Please model this.
Amino acid sequence: MRNRMIAGNWKMNKTFSEGVELALGLVEELADGTGSVDVVVCPPAIDLKGVAEVIEQSSAPFALGGQNVYWEESGAYTGETAPGMLEAVGAAYCIIGHSERRSYFGETDEDVNKKAKALLAHGIVPISCCGESLEIRQAGEHVAFVVDQVRKDTEGLEFDDPARYVIAYEPIWAIGTGMNATADDAQEICGAIRATLVEVFGEEKAAGIRILYGGSAKPENVGGYLSMPDVDGALVGGASLKADSFAAMVKSAMA
Ligand code: PEP
Model:
């Protein structure tokens, strides 16, 4: 049994005070709780502390996540954030391998794998992103491409509880474009990801790992994705920047 998950990726949006305001808005919108749905917000690193305080002071029904991490414990890595730093501020989750990190900052599958290992060692749940470009989809190679990413990203990972590892399938052509994948497109890949997880981790663990869809997901279309057998939630960019639209997606997942 997999609890659904709705995770918000604020990307490089919201100053410290705007982040606190958005988190407070979300507390208000979700005042009746989130049922069995796990809700996560991933603000920019500089906003983490402020959002952590809102979560703590208001017993908010959502958890905190980072957007990126470096795999070393500490040292001369200017601009980076260590897993222990995320842990200390109360982050329970962290996005890794987002396509923007891969394309603008050269993050590779090997990096994503090292980041996952570092997070797991600190008890932080990786939300590990994968997804194909439009060119790869048009060439009909999208399933093989994503399966290969998942194999590389999960190599040698160790965790007992399958809820401790999350995958987000985010087709690059659908991110921030308004051009969302159909629910069937999402199921095709998420089903292939599940089959790959069975090969890597075995049937039982693979059955418990959440797979999210991301890419122009919004209140109007999230229900379609959630109706698919291998889609367990959504990683949400644009629609997570307003408390009412993000909360509406959480409520869809609760229905
Ligand atoms: C994302 O970047 O993780 C994302 C899914 O963005 P959007 O929802 O804006 O497409």
User: Anything to note?
Assistant: Strands lie at 5-9, 38-42, 63-66, 91-96, 125-130, 166-169, 210-214, 233-236.
